[in-house]
Amino acid sequence: MDTPRPGKTRVTSVSLRAETLEAIRARAGKQGVSSYIEEAVQRQLQREAIDEYIAAAEAEHGPVDPAEVSDKAERIRAHHAAHRGESAPADAA
């Protein structure tokens, strides 16, 4: 039995291409089409909220330096690898 989703739900109608709906049904399994679409839409809303946050931060503080992002990402990978007892891949980006 499916686990109920928290929060109120409302019935709506959406139009999808037949191929899209078939692919969703093939992947959704016991989860169900509605739950699959709900989760996909929630992920998209989160992405859009993050994009808006980044745009606001860059408007206030200027664009992010890609080299700085790469350096910090490497430091994070190295930290996690050290805590797993591994070495970070040299070419990880």
Automatic annotation (TrEMBL):
Protein name per its UniProtKB record: Ribbon-helix-helix protein, CopG family
Top-rank taxon: Bacteria
Annotated region described as Disordered, given as residue ranges: 58-93
Biased composition (Basic and acidic residues): 58-76
